[in-house]
Amino acid sequence: MSDRNLSVKWASKIGFVLAAAGSAIGLGAIWKFPYVAGTNGGGAFFLVFVLFTILLGYPLLLGEFILGRRARSDAIGTYKTIAPGTAWVVTGWIGIAACFLVLTFYSVIGGWILLYILKAVTGSLSGLTQPEYGELFGSIIKDPLQTLAAQLAFIVMTIIVVAKGVQKGIERVSSIMMPLLFVLFITLVVRALTLDHAMDGVRFLLVPDFGSLTPQAILFALGQAFFTLTLGVSVMVTYSAYLSKTQNLPKSALSIVIMNLAVTLLAGLAIFPAVFSFGLKADEGPTLLFAVLPAVFDRLPFGMLFFVGFLIAFLFAALTSAFSMIEIIVAAITKGDDTGRRKWTWSIGLLIFIVGIPACLSYGMLDQPLIFGKTFFDAADYVVSNILLPLGALLMSLFIPLKLSKTDLYNEMKSGSGAGKGFFLVWYYLLRFLVPLAIVLVFLNLIGVFTF
């Protein structure tokens, strides 16, 4: 690597795994999965999602790790190093643009989480009916002062950690937040499973009903498998650039996939048994966590205490993902020189907040469709989810096997792991043929070229 300061690195192997897992385990696993599963068949959707994550998500994740450690550069420098003077560098720019745009609306949801934690702690979420919880959520997201202040608070929390650097900031905080996230979720699951009729919710999540699984739901599961691992935006390329040659890449990638699936499962087991126990619907959509769950927890002894625990776990997942999205931009600018990290992190973070103001006001002052029939929030979400993420993932799945020889790929994978030739060949052909085909199907469906 010619343009990165080698002092930028992870302090430990487990620190890297926890930070990368934190990047992967975000709103996709905790906010999006429950309502997508709830509206797309429950157990059948979850099973297909698990299969796609293992067969397609894991190969691309491992490919990003190999690419990042091989090039040992940032999201832009990686493609310049491997394929100098070519247009492949656009892959890195897509990743940076996607991360920037994601944070403009991701931080809005992070602000909602902070507001709900504050209201739960102060008792403002207690004693309401389910319709009143829905009305409360609507009033919160329409309040410009509250939501902008909360969005800024979320961004500042992210900036403070990333500004401290990879080891002292991202790795140290992720190494605390990720274990706590699992402890909180396990506690919530234990409580949820003690409720009457909780097994109805467990069966909904874990017992496949393939009659309710539509072709459209299969494509949703495929998209969820890719995008819940933060693939296609060069985040994992950047994170793996800080690795030593002794890191076991196949094992690290597998650990992150397992942790991501575990949190997704725990989120489902914390939510669906509680929802079914009180006879509520699992297909409430995006408002499930903010308008339905408070009503569920409020009916339990010490329920708001458990709801605060859920919100804190939710906040940890959102923050660790936000760390990675700002880090990829900072790394591309500083190129491993941490002397300018603090200045650039604050500059980028505050710019994200300013650009994200219209998204924050999309449920109040700017609630009219303004961009192709969508609000700023929905338009940003659409561009990222339907265009930038699948396009970035497709380009990455093509770039790795085309621009790195089999020998180089195998040697990089084998370094630190001793991976066998058979495992390598299975991974290689999955990445080269099956992964791009699957991404093309998702992409064409998302942009409406075809539907089932």
From TrEMBL:
PROSITE patterns tied to this protein: NA_NEUROTRAN_SYMP_1, NA_NEUROTRAN_SYMP_3
Statement: the UniProt record of this protein carries the keyword Transmembrane helix: yes
Pfam families for this protein: SNF (PF00209)
CDD domains: SLC6sbd_Tyt1-Like
Topology in membrane: Multi-pass membrane protein
Predominant subcellular localization, coarse grouping: membrane
Keywords noted in UniProt: Membrane, Symport, Transmembrane, Transmembrane helix, Transport
One GO MF term attached to the UniProt entry: symporter activity
Keyword Transmembrane among UniProt keywords: yes
InterPro entries (alphabetical): Na/ntran_symport, SNS_sf, YocR/YhdH-like
Gene Ontology cellular-component annotations: membrane
Residue ranges of the TM segments: 12-31, 43-67, 88-118, 148-166, 178-198, 218-242, 254-280, 300-333, 345-366, 386-404, 425-450
Subcellular localization, as worded in the UniProt entry: Membrane
Family: Belongs to the sodium:neurotransmitter symporter (SNF) (TC 2.A.22) family.
Record protein name field: Transporter
Organism field: Bacillus glycinifermentans
